Amino acid sequence: MSFGIEVEKAWGSSVKAKGTTSDLNEQNRILGQVSAVIEDMSHNLVTITKLVKKLGTSTDTVSVRRELQDVMRRTQSAATETSDVLKHLSHSGQNDVKFRLHQKRIHSDFQGILSRFSELSKLAAQKERQFVAREEEENQSTKTKTNKFGLEEENDLENFLMQDFQNQQLIQREAEYHESVVKEREKGIRYIESTIQEINQIYKDLAFMVNEQGAVIDTIESNVTSAYDRVDSGRSQLIQAAEDHQKSRNRICCLLLILIIVLFILVLLLK
After folding, report:
1. What are 174-203's pLDDT values in tens digits?
2. Rounded to a whole number, what is the distance in angstroms from the first to the last CA of the chain?
3. C-alpha span between 214 and 97 (Å, rounded)
4. CB 163 within 8 A of CB 127
5. CA distance 84 to 127
6. pLDDT higher for 7 or 132?
7. Which residue in 72, 115, 208, 261 has its CB near the most CB atoms, within 10 A?
8. In this structure, are residues 48 and 42 in contact, taking their beta carbons and an 8 Å threshold?
9. Which of 204, 194, 179 minimizes the C-alpha distance to 69?
């Protein structure tokens, strides 16, 4: 799944979100797509785990290693693209709390995927290095045994020369085979190492985004809390004003009542 074009369509030449409902809906939709890709990456890691277990065993074949590199390449590509999309979203300026919390969960899931991918890549590289070391040791051992065999079979000059020639051909063929195997493995190791470096860089970038988004969420929550406190304070003030107004009315009523009573008594006395 590809996001790059959709991100450009969603924000055009800028990623300055305007905070409108349509902007928020579009960003939530893209977050949903990112979640789906992260889920696919998780499935890829299951496949990578199974293939890495085969390295250096009797089931280790060229097709296994090719499949491993293919799955790793697709996973790395998805990780790179996902990181780019999350960078766009992190600068969207969207201040919706639910959106930011959803984004934070996505970041956490993606970090877990990257961490596991890096671990598997390191394990694959380690197994490949161990295989190369064994292959080189076996190659050296074969040469030594073959040379000894040639010396032991030296019965006469003709047989010795023929055997020596055959032994040299055998050594050369085996050396070429071992060399091709080692080159193929070393090429795989270099690819895995480059994958590890890129994944580590993506992880660092993501960690920075997570810290940045954490500060944004704290700011949003602080603003919401502050707004709530101001509303609550205003409500308390209105209630207090209403109570003061009611007390004032009660005092006026009491004074009027007293005044009426006094006037009534004065009227009675004047009669």
Report:
1. 766 667 777 888 888 888 888 899 998 998
2. 103
3. 11
4. no
5. 31
6. 132
7. 72
8. no
9. 194
